[in-house]
Design a protein that fits this description.
Blueprint: H1 14-17, E1 26-27, H2 29-32, E2 46-48, E3 51-54, E4 65-67, E5 72-80, E6 84-91, E7 96-101, E8 115-116, E9 123-126, E10 141-148, E11 157-158, H3 161-167, E12 168-169, H4 171-177, H5 205-218
Antiparallel strand pairs: 1-2, 2-11, 3-10, 4-9, 5-6, 5-8, 6-7, 7-10, 10-12
Length: about 220
């Protein structure tokens, strides 16, 4: 079953969460003034190549799901300095890649090579715990970016706007243009397990007829 949109915001209440670092925002020493509690350990500089999505009131000690934005293939899962856990997803029907940073990479529903379907919202991971190795000692939030190409590219900040324009999309505008909807607005449940990498063939008419005959004898 397909829904009106095959694209989803990667977290519910997406717009409400984007409050600290926005796409292409210049992050310098001035930015960090007054934000010492948010950034007690790490400070990065440059033009932000993503949007940061914060946890909401009551979510600090809860598992907060991160959803795949559409169908595609999980191409990377690993731990990197500055990110902690990071997942890359090649997006179906494009030459683009989604980056999900500061996330859990163990005991999650996907693995490298997992095929994600766009038919329903799919939980791929959860926000990493605050100031832990899962977030590389960062606050609890999702660093979410979409870049051009399907190589493994991990820069969270770029030195100049030209690189931002050449390599990165504004992820909020990108999803809006795709007609993305909130994942929790869909009347469905999230998948708890990876999507099989092989596509199961649908039974044809002969197969269905044979199954029907067998069912008659088994009644």
């Amino acid at each position: 079953m397909s829904y009106a949109s095959d694209w989803y915001y990667t977290m519910d209440n997406y717009q409400k969460r984007a409050t600290v670092k926005l796409f292409a925002q210049l992050i310098n020493e001035e930015f960090y003034k007054g934000k010492e509690k948010l950034f007690p350990f790490n400070r990065f500089y440059g033009y932000h190549a993503a949007v940061d999505l914060e946890y909401l009131t009551g979510e600090k000690d809860k598992d907060v799901p991160v959803y795949a934005v559409t169908g595609g293939t999980i191409s990377y899962i690993g731990s990197l300095p500055g990110y902690g856990g990071v997942i890359l997803q090649k997006l179906d029907g494009t030459n683009d890649t989604a980056l999900y940073g500061h996330v859990k990479i163990t005991d999650i529903p996907v693995s490298i090579g997992s095929k994600i379907t766009s038919e329903k919202p799919t939980t791929i991971t959860y926000l990493g715990d605050e100031f832990s190795n899962e977030t590389s000692k960062e606050r609890k939030h999702l660093h979410f970016g979409i870049y051009k190409g399907q190589d493994n590219y991990f820069r969270g900040h770029e030195k100049n706007l030209k690189v931002i324009q050449d390599k990165w999309y504004n992820p909020t505008n990108y999803l809006k243009e795709k007609g993305a909807v909130s994942p929790t607005a869909i009347n469905s449940t999230s998948r708890p397990t990876p999507i099989p990498t092989t596509v199961e063939k649908r039974p044809n008419f002969v197969y269905n007829f044979w199954e029907w005959l067998i069912s008659l004898f088994n009644k």
